Fold this sequence. Notes:
Elements: E1 6-12, H1 19-27, E2 35-41, H2 48-59, E3 60-61, E4 69-72, E5 76-83, E6 89-96, H3 108-112, E7 119-122, E8 128-129, H4 134-144, E9 148-159, E10 164-167, H5 175-180, E11 190-193, H6 194-203, H7 214-224, E12 226-239, H8 250-270, H9 277-295, H10 300-309, H11 315-323, H12 327-336
Parallel strand pairs: 1-2, 1-7, 2-6, 9-12
Antiparallel strand pairs: 3-5, 4-5, 5-6, 7-11, 8-12, 9-10, 9-11
Helix pairs in contact: 7-8, 8-9, 9-10, 10-11
Amino acid sequence: MNYFKVHVVCMTYNHSPYIVETLNGFTMQKTSFPYVCVVIDDDSTDGEQEVIKRYIKENFDLDDPTVARNEETDDYILTFARHKTNHNCFFAVLYLKYNHYSIGKSKNPYYEKWTHTKYRALCEGDDYWTDPYKLQKQVDYLESHPECGMVYTQVNLYDQGKSIYRKGWAAQTDFEDLLLNSNKIITLATCFRRDLYDAYHTEVVADKNWKMGDFPLWLYISHHSSLKYFDEITGVYRLLPTSASHNPDIKKMRDFLVSTYEVRCFFAKQYGRENLLDTFAINEVNNLFRLSVQKDKNISGFIYRFAKSHGVVSINTLVKCLLYSTKVGRRFHRKKYPSEW
């Protein structure tokens, strides 16, 4: 496994309409080093596993006895092979036999055997890379800048429902900025050092039940190293109607926002920024109010309880709770501040 310089992780579930674009983004990479893409399908029900199998059969050398291999356990079927023409590209595909997410079973052990590499990159099965030199440019920078822990780029956003592209929100950031403001790092555009990832999982993630995996990792990496942003588009982030951070279910979105707040508080306490805790709580209250208006749902009771439990109840909070508990109040806000929506 030490043969590979980069380990790419692709977690996917029910992405059959999109997964071929994702896999093409991996195989198109032009590099001076070998890399392995670990694709884990979590027992999709939309035929995605068959789509991946056809792709592997058409594009990878399954008959080379020195490289190709298959393995089956009670949990998965594994296919490992080298691309027919891009000889630096290797795939390890794990077809899970039952859905792990639904029972809270971690998929991490399945790709740990492939992680003895220097760098790591991520791309989920509904996103894709468009720049064939993405990995090469990122690795070149990391190789020549040992103080840098992660390189990331800009991407295009594609609204699947509206068939519209627009530029993403990525920008140069650091630990303080990430802690206080929005996340300016888009997961599919990253490449980072494996040793920092390993240290993060050893020091931080043990018993956490956060609802996102990328944001706390970015905070950890940015605290222990510098970050480098390239203002160039290397991929496409697909906006689907339902995802962890975009969901029609307001309770799930509410819980996601609270989980992000908990992540900020953890790192503030971990690295001596306790003076920011009240600021985080006030910002969270405002974020929850915005969610209430955006979804046109009354969550004022939850917001008040959150503010009270964190000691940030104010006259302004009470007024908003009353105002946004009604449809009239929420619509008034949308009309008064149309630029927010």
